Each structure stands twice: as C-alpha cells, then as structure tokens.
Amino acid sequence: MSGSDQKQVLGGIDAGGTTFKCVLAGLDGEIIARKRIPVSVPEATIASVTAFFREALSMHNATMKSLGVASFGPIDIDPASDSYGTILETPKPGWASCDLCGRLSAALGVPVHVETDVNGALLAEMAWGAAKGCASAAYVTVGTGIGAGIYTGGRLLGHPVHPEFGHIRLQRHPKDLGFKGSCVFHGDCLEGLASAKALQDRFGDPAALPADHLAWEIEAYYLAQASLSLVLMSRVERVILGGGILLADGLIEKVRVAYDMLMNGYVKDRATIELISTPGLGDDAGLKGGILLAMRGAGD
C-alpha cells in the first residue's frame, strides 16, 4: 500500500519518572494503541519508546503527524529555547541534560511538543475531564514529589517556566510536629510533608495504612492547605488532586472537610464537593495531555 494511502495519527507520551505511558491516537484523539514502558537509562527507554511507535504505525498502516509529551521534570518547556524539551537537573541517573524531545523527534521524524506532566494533565482535564467547561483550574499531583499546574486568564500560569508549588510552606499539623520533612532543600515544605515519600518516611507503605490511620488526617490537612492557597491566590474554579495517594479510601472527603474548616466560610463561590475533586480522566490524565499537545501541534 502506498504512503498516500496511510492514515495520519498522533502520538502521546506520559513520561513519568518510573514509567513512560505511550499511545497512538487518531486525529480525533481516540486511542488505538498503547504501551507502558519502564524507565531505565535514557538510551534504553527512548529505544523502547521508538520501537513501540514504529511497530504500532506499521500495524495500523499509519504515519505520525505530531507527538506530544507530558514529561517529568524539571524540563525546558520554552519553545524559543535552544534546550526546549531537555531534562534539566534531576537526581534520576543519566537523565540530567537529556534532550528527550530532540531524540524522539530525530528517531521518529516528527515534530515533538512538550509540557510538564502536571500541565499536560491539567490541560487534558480542562478539555475532557473534571474541569471541562471551567475557565480556570489547578491540578496538583501527589507522588514522589508534588507539583502543580495552574490555568487562569487564558493561559498556564508562569509559562514558559512553571510554578514550584510543591515547595510552599505550610502550617504544621499539631500531631505532626516531630517529623523534619523529606524535602532535601526545605525539609517541611508541602512536598516534604505530603508527598508519597514523606508518608513513607514516617508511616511506612501508604498502601498498607487503614483508612482511619492518623496519617490520612495529617495528609488531608496539608492537601487542604494547598487547595486553600490555590483558591485564595488565583480563585480557580476547580482544584484537581491527582496521584496514587488520592486513591486512599476516603482521603478526598477528608481534604474537603479540612478545607472547609480552614477557609472558615470566607470564600463561598461554589460547594467544596464541586471545587475539590480527583481527576475525571483517572490515570490517563497525563496520557491524554500528551495527545492534546500533539493535537495542538498538528494544527499549528
């Protein structure tokens, strides 16, 4: 079959710190192939990603028009920068100064468009998920670290750099005064107190903790403060809390209760159950973010 008979498709990657989730999608964003690739060193990881896309393209008799990447960071997201798409300083072995998008573009022969993982997830949630129809929203991802994306006034806040929201300072929970925090830079910042690593450091495996464990009251208190800061600072219409930690039974409800206590009736734009939510796209938020970046890139 000739190249002119091949259909055009898009590629999307949710480039996480431990797993790259890769998809091939139609121009309408409908996923037609997907694969999870464990992260190792850049050379092996990029080779596996490239092999997936080549095989999927061959199987579907397709050509890729554009590739979108929602990536772990820090990463250069300034399209005008010479290092656009390059991973910056990171403790991940071998990944510092890796030209992730340049390598993918060269290997696949397509333009690559990149955002941070949390910004990608936020844009996808605004297009198709929990913040669809909202003019402003924030997405907070809680994992090994904590990051946030904020969309208001028709753009991503801080672009082409991005907020370091995970390092804001918090009021300590009265039953959590002895823990010094897990952040190597600031100790007891948001990330140092509420990340998955912070929970692990003082309570053990979060997945093994019962729903009534004190850890979840403490975690909810810190995530409520984070939500409060976002609402008071930018008056966003939706705060989306994502990441595996939010799968804990009853945690989102505890966050809402703590938020109402902390807000104390001051801002009453909307009900808290509407304001604070988990991702509507679930675990696919970052992946759909990659597809959305590719869709926008294909339209340029």
Automatic annotation (TrEMBL):
Matching InterPro entries: ATPase_NBD, ROK
Superkingdom field: Bacteria
Pfam families: ROK
CDD domains (alphabetical): ASKHA_NBD_ROK_BsFRK-like
Stretches of the chain forming a coiled coil according to its record: none
Assigned protein family: Belongs to the ROK (NagC/XylR) family.
Descriptive protein name: ROK family protein
Organism from which the protein derives: Gimibacter soli
